[in-house]
Design brief:
- By secondary structure, this protein is α+β, with helices and mostly antiparallel strands.
- It has 17 helices and 11 strands.
- α1 runs antiparallel to α4, α3 runs antiparallel to α5 and α5 crosses α8.
- The longest helix is centred in the C-terminal third of the chain and has 21 residues.
- The protein binds adenosine-5'-triphosphate (ATP).
- It comes from Pseudorhodoferax aquiterrae.
Length: 519
C-alpha cells in the first residue's frame, strides 16, 4: 500500500462555503436523463442528495449532485460559479467527485455504497446510487435509550471494517468516517456512504480546519499543520474508534487538536466502567483496549492497520449480516421514534411536534424546512451540546483563573456502585476546558459524559433551563463552518433556542429565501 493520497489528494481549494439550503435543490419532477427527481434526502456543504426514479430500469435510486456551497449557485437548473476566481477550485472538486464515484463503482460490497452511474450535466456532476432504506448511525445513536450493547457494536464494526479494508487494499484512506457517513439499513449490513472527496478537494488551504474536517472524528495527522505525521490506515482506525466511542459516550469525542493541547477525553476504560455502573452494560476488555489504542493521539501508538485493530478487538466474522435488523437487535433499548403519544414524554415540549426520522422519505422541496425539522426534532445532541457548552464555558473560566489546575475530567470520580437506573443523576464532568487557540483556532469542544437514559416507566427530569443568548457556534459546538447552517436551522426549531436572536434572524432569512419556492 504505497500510496495513500492518490486521487483523494486535496487540491488547492479554499472554502468559504455555506451549507446549501434545501430550497436550493432541484424541484421535484426535474428530469436528469432517465432519472426523475422526487425530492430531497439530504443537503450538505458540498452537494444535495435526491430520491429519484429511474424510468429506464424502473427502480428508485438516490442521486447526489455536486453543488459546493459558497463557490457555486444555481441558476435555473444549471450550476454557476459565484466568481470566476473559483473556477479552478470548483473544477478540482468536480474532478474529485467524479473520481470518488468511479472508485466506488469498482467495488461491489454490501457494506460499501454502490455507485450505479456518474455523469456531468447542468455544469456540474451527478452520481446515482441505490436508495438505501434506513437512518444514519448519527440519527440512530441519538435515539437509543441506552448505549448499544457490545454484540451490536461488533456487527457494526464488522461491516464497516470490511468496507474499509476494500478501500485500504486499493491504497485509499477514507479520511471522512463519521456517524453521518455510516448508514444503518432497515435490514442488511450498515453501509459506508461516501468518501467526502469533494469536501477534501475543496477544503485544502481552507482558512479553518473545520471547513474540511469532521473535527470530532479526524485524527491529529489530518490537520494540515501536522505535515510530519503521515496519514494511513491508522487514520481511519482513529475515526472508527471515535465513532464507536461517540455512540457509547452519547456525545462526540473531543477534537484531536484540542486533545493535543490538553487531553480531557475520558479514557474508554473509565467510560466503560461508567456505563457498567449506570446502565449495567458490560464491555469486554478487548473492546475497551481496542478503543483506547485506536484513539491514541500519537499515530505511532495506534494499530497500524485494520488487521491490527481487528486483532485487538478480537473481532470474529459475523455471519448473516444481510439479515441484520439493527433495531430488533437493540430491542427495548431502541427508542422508537413515535413518542408523541408516549406519556413518558408528555413533559417534553417538543415531543408532540416530533416525528420519526423518515429513513428514505423525501423532503418535499416546497416544504423542505419543516420536514427536516421533524426528522430531527428528537435528536438530543444539540441539547447536549448546549449543556456541554455551558459547562465548557465555566471550565474555561476556571482555566483562566487557575491555569495550573488539573483537568476537571481527570478528577471526575467514577461511581463505584451502580445507582438505581431511575435515579442516577450523573455528575456532569467538565468537558475540555479550553480550545487553546493554535495557529488555526477551533471551536470549543463539547463533550458530555453519558447521561443515564430514563427507564421506560419513569418520567424524565425536566430539560435544562434554556440559556439566554447563544451564538451559532455555541448552539452547534460540534459542527463545522460548513455544516453549521444546517445544524443551526435544525436547532432553531427547538424550544430552547427558537427565541434566541440568532435563531430569529436565521428563521427570518430562511423565510425570505424560501419565498420564491413557496406553494
Ligand atoms: N444512497 C443513499 N440512500 C439513502 N439515503 C442517502 C443515500 N446517500 C445519501 N443519503 C442521505 O443523504 C444524506 C447526505 O448524504 P451524504 O452524507 O452523502 O452527503 P453529505 O452529508 O452532504 O456529504 P458529507 O458527508 O461530505 O458532508 C445522508 O446523511 C443520508 O441520510
Amino acid at each position: 500500500m504505497a500510496l495513500y493520497t492518490g486521487w483523494l489528494a486535496p487540491a488547492v481549494l479554499p472554502v468559504n462555503a455555506a451549507v446549501r439550503h434545501p430550497s436550493q435543490g432541484l424541484p421535484p419532477g426535474t428530469r436528469l436523463g432517465e432519472f426523475e427527481l422526487h425530492g430531497l434526502l439530504g443537503a450538505g456543504g458540498f452537494g444535495m442528495v435526491y430520491r429519484a426514479y429511474d424510468h429506464s430500469l424502473h427502480r428508485t435510486v438516490a442521486i447526489k449532485e455536486y453543488l459546493p456551497g459558497g463557490v457555486a449557485d444555481r441558476v435555473g437548473q444549471a450550476v454557476t460559479l459565484r466568481t470566476g476566481a473559483d473556477a479552478r477550485r470548483f473544477d478540482e472538486g468536480l474532478r474529485s467527485f467524479m473520481n470518488e464515484a468511479r472508485l466506488l463503482a469498482q467495488f461491489d460490497h454490501p457494506a460499501l455504497v454502490k455507485v450505479l452511474r456518474v455523469w456531468e450535466q447542468n455544469r456540474t456532476a451527478y452520481m446515482a446510487m441505490p436508495l438505501y432504506q434506513g437512518v444514519t448511525l448519527k440519527e440512530a445513536c441519538a435515539q437509543m435509550r441506552t448505549p448499544p450493547p457490545e454484540p451490536w457494536l461488533r456487527k457494526l464494526l464488522w461491516s464497516v471494517l470490511q468496507a474499509l479494508e476494500l478501500l485500504h487494499r486499493r491504497g485509499t484512506v477514507h479520511r471522512d468516517i463519521s456517524p453521518d457517513n455510516i448508514f444503518l439499513q432497515d435490514i442488511g449490513p450498515p453501509v459506508l456512504l461516501d468518501l467526502g472527496a469533494a469536501r477534501q478537494a475543496l477544503g485544502q488551504d481552507a482558512p479553518q480546519h473545520t471547513a474540511i474536517l469532521k473535527v470530532n472524528y479526524a485524527p491529529i495527522e489530518q490537520y494540515a499543520d501536522a505535515q510530519d505525521m503521515p496519514q494511513g490506515p491508522w487514520s481511519d482506525v482513529y475515526a472508527l474508534a471515535a465513532v464507536v466511542y461517540g455512540c457509547l459516550n452519547r456525545a462526540p469525542p473531543v477534537p484531536a487538536s484540542v486533545r493535543a493541547v490538553r487531553d480531557s477525553l475520558r479514557p474508554p476504560a473509565e467510560l466503560a466502567e461508567h456505563l457498567r455502573s449506570v446502565h449495567g452494560l458490560a464491555y469486554t476488555p478487548a473492546l475497551v483496549e481496542a478503543l483506547t489504542a485506536g484513539l491514541a493521539l500519537d499515530p505511532a501508538r495506534r494499530p497500524r492497520d485494520l488487521a491490527a485493530f481487528r486483532a485487538l478487538l478480537q473481532l470474529q466474522p459475523v455471519p448473516g449480516m444481510e439479515r441484520f435488523d439493527w433495531r430488533a437487535e437493540l430491542g427495548p433499548d431502541w427508542q422508537a421514534p413515535h413518542a408523541a403519544s408516549d406519556p413518558q414524554h408528555e413533559d417534553d415540549d417538543m415531543s408532540t411536534l416530533w416525528q420519526a426520522p423518515q429513513p428514505h422519505s423525501t423532503i418535499d422541496l416546497a416544504v423542505a424546512a419543516p420536514a427536516v425539522v421533524q426528522a430531527h426534532r428528537r435528536q438530543w445532541w444539540p441539547k447536549a451540546g448546549v449543556a456541554a457548552l455551558i459547562v465548557g464555558l465555566l471550565a474555561a473560566v476556571g482555566i483562566v483563573a487557575s491555569p495550573g489546575d488539573p483537568p476537571a475530567t481527570a478528577a471526575a470520580p467514577v461511581p463505584s456502585k451502580a445507582p438505581a437506573r431511575a435515579e442516577a443523576p450523573v455528575a456532569v464532568t467538565a468537558p475540555p476546558a479550553a480550545s487553546a487557540p493554535g495557529p488555526q483556532a477551533l471551536p470549543a469542544p463539547a463533550e458530555l459524559p453519558m447521561q443515564p437514559a430514563p427507564p421506560p416507566a419513569v418520567r424524565r427530569p425536566p430539560p435544562p433551563a434554556a440559556p439566554r443568548a447563544l451564538s451559532a457556534e455555541q448552539i452547534c459546538p460540534d459542527s463545522n463552518f460548513l455544516t453549521r447552517p444546517m445544524c443551526l436551522f435544525r436547532a432553531c426549531q427547538q424550544a430552547p433556542y427558537a427565541a434566541m436572536p440568532v435563531c430569529v434572524e436565521n428563521t427570518r432569512r430562511l423565510r425570505e429565501s424560501q419565498r420564491p419556492y413557496g406553494p
